[in-house]
Automatic annotation (TrEMBL):
Protein name (Swiss-Prot/TrEMBL): Patatin
Gene3D superfamilies: Cytosolic phospholipase A2 catalytic domain
One GO molecular-function entry: hydrolase activity
Gene Ontology BP term (one): lipid catabolic process
Chain ranges of the PNPLA domain: 11-224
Coiled coil ranges: none
PANTHER family in the cross-refs: BLR7027 PROTEIN, NEUROPATHY TARGET ESTERASE/SWISS CHEESE D.MELANOGASTER
Length: 381
């Protein structure tokens, strides 16, 4: 039976575009060891980019974890590209031409078109599916302690954690990161998932914001500030391929491969460094006397990280032909075609098609089942 007081348990969901379907599989596996109609095992939920959307959906159904996971799974299993961004030729190439035009006036240019894709369909989908008023209700009833969504400010360069909580948690400010108390809305989710140049920036609190993975030097910071002491992390650190090596000879990357490499760095590298810092802090805390621990304000943080056992790029390559023809045409401009698709991870971020998402869900489900004994021990289930 799950313990009632679980406020120390947190869930960290990172970004990754379509890759976030993997998170749903892991969450689904955890549901198999929980009683039906049980509350969420994660009272503190922190998300970034697509992870922020998944985390917010779970928060809406914090009173019934199974129901929240089932609704998430249904959406991801039935995803199509046009549910996320407009994929018709006219919209895509009009946006590109506007961004490239040297004559950007108010009549032909607005910040909302400063991107490859128009993702208003995603905003409409989220508005239809998410009853965000349920978050406040779940906070009041004690099913949820806090929810945070991270976005990156174009103006200050800060990583900004927008949080909604049950307790009086003070906003914080650290080097290049800060926390702002704010009721989570659809525009917060759109800002957190606004991959630069891919999706348009969003205005919040007088600033324009981009994807929360940008400038996120300390991804563990939000759940820790919100009171989590045991953080379950669904990561995206996949097994590496050797597609840039032919025999013993290195081969140059295409434009699409370079973009994919940059996205991989944005979405995964910061967590590795933050986990190393946390480990050193834990070692320091263990050396302190109880009195000095109290004076320092430091505490030990436990984490459990689960990462995919298969390479997303290889999986995406199998489903490349499912992408709309217009998107494949755009990717060819970056040097990606059916013969070179495995050379870039860019496809794995943009492939919002049900066949690909379903395979990632299955991968996450099996990866979590394979470690379920350790997961249950960590989560005290």
């Amino acid at each position: 039976m799950v313990k009632q007081n679980r406020d120390k348990f947190g869930l960290l969901l990172l970004g990754g575009g379509a890759r976030a379907a993997y998170q749903v599989g892991v969450l689904k596996a955890i549901a198999t060891v929980l009683p039906r109609n049980h509350v969420t095992p994660f009272p503190v939920i922190s998300g970034t980019s697509a992870g922020a959307i998944n985390g917010t959906a779970l928060s809406c159904y914090a009173s019934c974890y199974h129901l929240g996971v089932k609704k998430l799974e249904w959406v991801w299993k039935n995803f199509r590209t046009e549910m996320v961004y407009k994929s018709n030729f006219s919209t895509i190439y009009r946006n590109i031409l506007k961004n490239m035009s040297p004559f950007k006036s108010d009549q032909i240019y607005t910040p909302k078109t400063n991107s490859w894709f128009d993702n208003r369909p995603l905003a409409e989908l989220l508005t239809e599916l998410l009853d965000l008023d349920r978050i406040d209700l779940n906070l009041q009833q004690g099913y949820l302690k806090a929810l945070s969504v991270t976005a990156s400010s174009y103006h200050s360069g800060d990583s900004v954690c927008l949080f909604q909580s049950r307790h009086d948690i003070e906003p914080w400010k650290r080097a290049k990161r800060r926390g702002i108390e704010s009721k989570i809305k659809i525009e917060h989710l759109m800002a957190s998932a606004a991959i630069p140049m891919v999706f348009p920036s969003i205005e919040l609190h007088g600033e324009y914001f981009a994807d929360g993975s940008i400038h996120q030097l300390a991804p563990l910071s939000p759940p820790i500030h919100l009171g989590a002491e045991k953080i379950f992390i669904i990561g995206m650190d996949q097994p590496k391929n050797r597609f840039f090596v032919q025999g013993d000879t290195a081969i140059p990357p295409s434009g699409g491969a370079i973009v994919g490499h940059l996205l991989d760095t944005i979405f995964s590298e910061a967590l590795t460094g933050d986990l190393e810092r946390m480990s050193r802090i834990n070692q320091t805390v263990d050396l302190l006397t109880p009195e000095k621990k109290l004076m320092s304000g430091l505490k030990s943080i436990e984490t459990f990280q689960i990462n995919p056992s298969a390479n997303f790029n290889e999986i995406a390559a199998k489903h490349y032909e499912c992408m709309p023809l217009s998107i494949r045409g755009l990717l060819r401009l970056l040097g990606i075609n059916a013969n070179t698709v495995q050379n870039s991870s860019l496809i794995s971020y943009l492939l919002f098609e049900q066949s690909y998402c379903r395979e990632l869900i299955e991968l996450g489900f099996n990866d979590a089942l394979a470690q379920m004994e350790d997961i249950r021990d960590f989560l005290e289930l």
